[in-house]
Amino acid sequence: MVINVYIVEDDIELQKIYELLLITNGLHVIGKANNGEEAITKYRNFIEKPDIILMDYYMPIKNGIEATKEIIKINKKAIILFISADLKIKAQALLAGAKFFLKKPFSCKQLIKKIKFFC
Questions:
Q1: Ramachandran assignment for 13, one of left (phi > 0), alpha (psi -120 to 50 degrees), beta (any other)
Q2: Rounded CA separation 55/45 (Å)
Q3: What is the residue extent of each domain of the chain?
């Protein structure tokens, strides 16, 4: 089974790192967004929804919590793995609908393990 991942991260270098890591581990990246607003728009337009969304917090236009809430309104079953170095927003992220919170920095193994656990 192929796992389709949607990366929502404003740091282009981190996007590239996540994409390389995911592809190397047999996962498929179906899209990337640079901010919360773009994340919502692209999510709405996906013909095939991603199996999991990697969501950053600090982003321009709309932050990750705002984007998470909107995506959950579109699809209550969306699986969002929230990624941030800011532990203060963990409870908010989970209340917004994220299934899990992964604190930066994390290992490649941790990320892949969590993705496979939820998919």
A1: alpha
A2: 17
A3: 4-118
Kind and range of the H or E element at 53?
Answer: strand 52-56
CATH number of 4-118: 3.40.50.2300
80 beta partners: 53
Q: Kindly report, residue by residue over 28-78, the tens digit of the pLDDT.
A: 999 999 999 999 999 999 999 999 999 999 999 999 999 999 999 999 999
| Residue 54 parent element (H or E) | strand 52-56
